[in-house]
Amino acid sequence: MNRLLSTTIAATLALAGTAYAAGPERVRGTIVSATETTLTVHTNSGQTDTIELSPTTVYATATRSSLGAIQPGGFIGTATKTQNGHQVALEVVVFPPSMRGAGEGHYGWDSLPDTTAGGSAVHSSMTNGNVMSAMPVHMTASSMTNGNVQTASGMGGAKQLTVTYTGGQQTITVPRSAPVVALAPGNRADLSTGASVFVVAVPGASGLSANRVVVGLDGVKLPM
Q1: What kind and span of H or E run contains 54?
Q2: Alpha-helical runs (H) found in the chain
Q3: Which one of 18, 21, 34, 134 is at 20 to 30 Å from 68 when CA atoms are compared?
Q4: Per DSSP, which regions of 65-157 are E strands?
């Protein structure tokens, strides 16, 4: 990828974070159809939106990944919930080196399905930053039965991350239940009917216009 394209991708991806206060719309759903200039999405809320695509729209793809891909030195984005004063990941997006710095920071995000507790919607925050450490978490829960203490696995297999960004850092626990996807640069041809899609769009004179489109490949349902 040439340097100009890499810079453009990172700058546009950052709109999901730095432009949050300006109120971009985040559209999540399934692709109904796509043309050279429009993308029609059946949204998770049940409506159908037609979004304008332009020459400046930036595309990315998401594929399945794993906790093992979250390593010190990497750059990630993660939506988290607050649980007992701690940040617990609902999902993790692993960025390629060309997208490092996209949306960097810690800020309010949308309500997302709680992947740690049955899937009901929960308020979330977004943290995009550099992984400074990624340590295994070994936790147990205890119970009393006829006077005998027994142990049961809690968040075994989870990771505890230290994620830094300009101006701060967060300590985040990533449970095994949190979906992990890896981003890569994409193009308009990746927009296939039935694919999961996430769009960052801004209102325009004729409706929504897409700044960024992320599409799931190989049946991946986008968690962000």
Answers
A1: none
A2: 3-13, 15-18
A3: 18
A4: 75-83, 86-95, 105-108, 112-113, 121-122, 125-137, 140-145, 148-153
